[in-house]
Amino acid sequence: MAAQARAHGGRYGKALAAVGAATALAAGAAAPATAAACAGGERYVALGDSYTSAPGVPEQSGGDCARSSVNYPSLTAKALHQKSFKDVSCSGARTDDFWRAQGANPPQLDALGRNTRLVTIGIGGNDIGFGEIIGTCAQLSAGDPAGAPCRKQYTAADGGDLLNQRIADTAPKIAKVLKAVHRKAPHARVVLAGYPSIMPDDGVGCFPSVPIAAGDVPYLRDTEKKLNAMLREQAGKAGVRYADTYAATVGHDVCKAEADRWIEGARPSRPAAPFHPNADGEQAMARPVITQARGR
């Protein structure tokens, strides 16, 4: 298997370069200034990270925040005929960026106000280190494509799973975000969106086109499911709605053929960031968000 990995060395170089781009997007260092939110808040405000903003999907705005005109918040606003709409989602956002400036971009919570009636949120992936995890797993796969080197990397000395711990550590941060949203926008319906189906739901990978080792595909799938389960639980505790974007995208993961792929892999064939939704993926994510926003 090591010989097979070396045989694909050129492909790994290109794939890992693309993964590096995804990691850079997840890091999200800076963004240009945006207009200050009105004191009362827009009627619909979208908060979140790159799975909300949709980097690389045309048409782009927001500088390094990389917001798409067809991301799921924009599609939700259109479906609900929301003329008062503000999208402050930003690539690389963590829960802390709801309170602090992300580069020149104001804290995301600043966009909310007493006039806000709908808030959608997509956050938590960067808190557990999405970009770092994908980059690490892709790099390790070259040396052990049939094994589970990434799972070994994230196994603690006592046998515990380090990514499970990261998810547990992120839970109170999500709870804090939801409480803050309620305080800032007390009259708003709040929808917390989960993450889409990135790895194949059946656990069967497609190495080397997507450089994730065979045993790490189900590991990463299960890790994402645990993250989504935590988000659903926090939504329930806070009395807000949860939009299941994972179920809405199963069968359209990074390993599917281009015509059926809604989440791009290490080397996107359609406009999108690596390991992020393309335009079809954002449209699919919008459907459960719209349903929850309508209260159905």
From TrEMBL:
CDD domains named among the record's database cross-references: SEST_like
GO molecular function: hydrolase activity
Keywords assigned: Hydrolase, Signal
Signal sequence, renumbered to the chain: 1-35
InterPro entries reported for this sequence: SEST-like, SGNH_hydro, SGNH_hydro_sf
Segments forming domain SGNH hydrolase-type esterase: 46-284
Start and end residues of each stretch annotated as Disordered: 267-296
SUPFAM superfamilies xref list: SGNH hydrolase
Protein's name according to its UniProt entry: SGNH/GDSL hydrolase family protein
Originating organism: Streptomyces luteireticuli
